[in-house]
Write a structure and sequence with these properties.
The chain is built from 7 helices and 3 strands. The chain is mainly α.
């Protein structure tokens, strides 16, 4: 139970962070940002606490108040879920844009490398390159000019290879593309699902989870259970030399009055006394 409460607490903090951060980006000035953050916090705390509070009120027979909080819980959970979804989707979009830009840069570097490599392959396959022993011993002005071109192509290939090494790897969201290919679902639908499902799950943990873990907490009105009368032990009372079993509630001695004088009673152990 302790771990569940920790998880719920982390979920509540996460939704506060997500909703507050999203509200901050929606405001123009500092005053507007502060107002939207306050609104997001109120909505988020309402979503977290109203359901548990409604259950508590219902347990204490405040039915109308419980119904009011339960009705107010629905727009709170809806608005909070929308804010979490917007926060996650906005960050995913920004990350995808950066990855797309990096993917384009890598594609350009790859094309440059392929062209430089192809050029080197062409010049090294030329007969002039072979006859000059790989441009180690060029003979004549033509061979010298040719070998200069070979040297430039080699340098261009080295620069293209270095640029390709520094280029960011991979495509934008390769996991969504692979999942879309394997399931036959559109990539946009996959991206929507992997955004809305975590947001909704987080909101449910922060609201329904909070309701669930607070149900196990002790309340002030809880009273310790008393043992039934039948389960209480009996005692033996000795009267006039005869031992009789008497329940504990019957052992209370009534106060002495003028009409009813006090009668002395002596408690005996559980086994009869030999007299």
């Amino acid at each position: 139970m302790l771990i569940a409460r920790i998880v719920v607490g982390m979920a509540v903090l996460a939704t506060l962070l997500f909703n507050g951060s999203y509200a901050y980006t929606r405001g123009d000035g500092q005053f507007e940002k502060l107002g939207l953050i306050l609104l997001a916090v109120i909505i988020d705390l309402s979503k977290t606490s109203f359901l548990a509070a409604a259950a508590h009120l219902r347990a204490n027979r405040h039915i109308l108040a419980a119904v009011v909080l339960f009705v107010l819980w629905w727009p709170a959970i809806a608005l909070s879920s929308w804010a979490s979804f917007s926060y996650i989707s906005t960050n995913r979009a920004a990350t995808a844009a950066d990855k797309a830009a990096g993917s384009d840069a890598r594609d350009r570097a790859q094309r440059r490398y392929d062209l430089a490599k192809r050029k080197v392959e062409l010049v090294t396959a030329d007969s002039a390159y072979v006859s000059s022993a790989g441009c180690a011993k060029p003979k004549g002005a033509v061979a010298t000019k040719f070998c200069e071109g070979v040297s430039e192509a080699t340098e261009e290939l080295a620069a293209a290879e270095a640029a390709l090494t520094k280029a960011p790897p991979g495509r934008a969201d390769p996991e969504t593309l692979l999942l879309a290919q394997q399931t036959g679902v559109q990539q946009g639908t996959v991206e929507f699902m992997i955004t809305v499902v975590p947001a909704l799950f987080l909101e449910l943990v922060a609201s329904l989870g909070f309701y669930a873990v607070t149900r196990s907490l002790p309340t002030a009105s809880a009273k310790p259970a008393s043992a039934p009368v039948d389960a209480l032990p009996t005692a033996e009372v000795v009267r006039d030399g005869a031992a009789t079993k008497t329940p504990p509630e019957a052992l209370a001695v009534a106060p002495a009055t003028a009409d009813a004088p006090k009668t002395a009673r002596r408690l005996a152990p559980a086994t009869p006394l030999a007299r």
